[in-house]
């Protein structure tokens, strides 16, 4: 693998115009990530589509999410996951940047959703998410499971936060394909096989499937990013995530 084989796209978050952009198109089969810039006072409706699950992540700003008459008011770093039959209205109270993640459903996924094991929509604030430990990270690292495995069919989403000096050991998981999305303060080195790949803030990177990957931060560097997992083999991948993601039973945060 060469450095130019690693696909990355940076979000344009500071311009004052409404926009919607598909990021890293066709990088992961069945997955699509859109970046939406919305202005104060906007009302944006995302119509239901029975072919995919939709997850919205509020990167910055302030909005109301309205689903079936119920309202959730959030500021930055909040999320909501909808089943394919649910539409959502987003009422924008402050200039906002929103990620929209779409994940195509197959027949088995639709049966699982219809079983009622998960009550939709699934929504919450980033800071309230379950924290976990895994063997690749130091005790200093804060890891969060925003949408743990089995919440949504063949999908999981979480985050990693730490600062220098720290190391997330290289590891491979060919059972799931993965995007990393970085928060504005992120400044870290991705370790992908034998490549050191700098990753700054507001970027979406495709971690090559099956690659041996990790993260290094030194000195004043900060790592703060979301991992978005698209699972190929749910039985084996969920078992893998069960084994490596162990809830801490505590809620930590770094002082600012």
What does this protein look like?
With 256 residues, the protein is mainly β. It has helices at residues 107-114, 234-244; strands at 8-10, 19-23, 31-38, 43-46, 52-67, 70-75, 78-82, 88-104, 122-125, 130-133, 142-152, 155-163, 166-171, 176-182, 188-192, 195-199, 203-207, 213-217, 222-231, 246-247. The strands form three sheets. Strands 1-17-14-19-12-11-10-20 form an eight-stranded antiparallel β-sheet, with helices on one face. Strands 2, 3, 4, 5, 6, 7, 8 and 9 form an eight-stranded antiparallel β-sheet that branches. Strands 13-18-15-16 form a four-stranded antiparallel β-sheet, with no helix packed on it. A hairpin with a 2-residue loop joins strand 11 and strand 12 (155-163). The longest helix is centred in the last third of the chain and has 11 residues, at 234-244.
Compose a concise summary of this entry.
This protein is mostly beta strands and 256 residues long.
Spatial strand sequence of the major β-sheet: 1-17-14-19-12-11-10-20
What coarse outline follows from CA principal-axis ratios?
globular
Give the proportion of residues in helices.
Answer: under 10%
Name the beta content range: over 45%
Quickly give the structural class. mainly beta
Largest sheet: 8 strands, antiparallel
Q: Report how far the terminal alpha carbons are from each other.
A: 38 Å
Unreliable parts: none
Secondary-structure element pattern, one letter each: EEEEEEEEHEEEEEEEEEEEHE
Mean pLDDT: 94
Kindly state the number of beta strands: 20
Count of helical stretches: 2
**Rg to the nearest angstrom?**
18 Å
């Amino acid at each position: 693998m060469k450095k130019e084989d690693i696909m990355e796209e940076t979000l344009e978050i500071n311009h004052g115009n409404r926009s919607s952009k598909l990021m890293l198109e066709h990088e992961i089969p069945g997955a699509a990530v859109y970046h939406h810039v919305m202005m104060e006072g906007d009302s944006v409706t995302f119509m239901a589509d029975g072919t995919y699950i939709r997850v919205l992540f509020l990167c910055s700003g302030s909005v109301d999410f309205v689903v079936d008459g119920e309202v959730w008011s959030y500021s930055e770093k909040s999320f909501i996951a909808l089943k394919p039959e649910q539409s959502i209205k987003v009422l924008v109270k402050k200039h906002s940047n929103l990620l929209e993640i779409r994940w195509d459903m197959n027949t088995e996924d639709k049966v699982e959703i219809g079983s009622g094991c998960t009550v939709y929509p699934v929504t919450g604030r980033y800071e309230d998410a379950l924290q976990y430990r895994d063997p690749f990270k130091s005790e200093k690292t804060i890891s969060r499971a925003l949408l743990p495995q089995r919440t949504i069919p063949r999908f999981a989403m979480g985050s990693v936060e730490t600062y220098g000096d720290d190391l997330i050991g290289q590891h491979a998981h060919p059972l799931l394909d993965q995007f990393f999305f970085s928060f504005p303060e992120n400044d870290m080195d991705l370790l992908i096989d034998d490549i050191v790949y700098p990753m700054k803030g507001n970027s979406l990177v495709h971690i090559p499937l099956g690659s041996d990957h990790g993260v290094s931060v030194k000195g004043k560097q900060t790592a703060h990013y979301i991992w978005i997992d698209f699972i190929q083999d749910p039985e084996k991948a969920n078992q893998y995530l069960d084994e490596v993601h162990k809830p801490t039973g505590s809620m930590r945060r770094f002082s600012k």
